[in-house]
Amino acid sequence: MRTVSALITCHNRRAKTMACLRGLFEQSLPPETTLAVYLVDDGSTDGTSEDVHSTYPAVSIIPADGTLYWCEGMRLAWSHASKVEPDAYFLLNDDTVLCPGALSSLLAIAESSSSTGCVVVGSCRDAVTGSHT
After folding, report:
1. CB 7 within 8 A of CB 38
2. In whole angstroms, what is the distance from residue 125 CA to residue 133 CA?
3. pTM
4. Of all helices (H) and strands (E), which one includes residue 10?
5. What confidence tens digit (pLDDT) does each residue in 83-124 have?
6. Helix (H, G, I), strand (E, B) or coil at 14
7. How many C-beta atoms lie closer than 10 Å to residue 87's C-beta?
8. 21-40 confidence digits (pLDDT tens)
9. CB of 101 within 8 A of CB of 28?
């Protein structure tokens, strides 16, 4: 069994965060792969945590006070995820909606790498024009 820990930080972008999570949970994963999601809610006051909890109860929500911003929020998520020693970390911006198969593609590239501990980076594209950004 392989575990992938997805790390996300959010702050007062409930709709974007929910769209991000929907895209993440709609991913088809390779056999024997599980997904653990760690979401740092950096002081949201718009009901983000409540919506995430009711829609995706498996998400580990880590509350913060609004002073972390993205980098420190991701570091906090990483510190929580590292306790279970996942096989891979997946850093994801909360305003990103994954294309179908994105996570499987990234994992396949990582597995085909001859180096240990590789970093695989995916590209983004504009939702309206389809152009890579």
Report:
1. yes
2. 5
3. 0.94
4. strand 2-10
5. 999 999 999 999 999 999 999 999 999 889 877 778 899 888
6. helix
7. 13
8. 999 999 999 999 999 999 99
9. yes
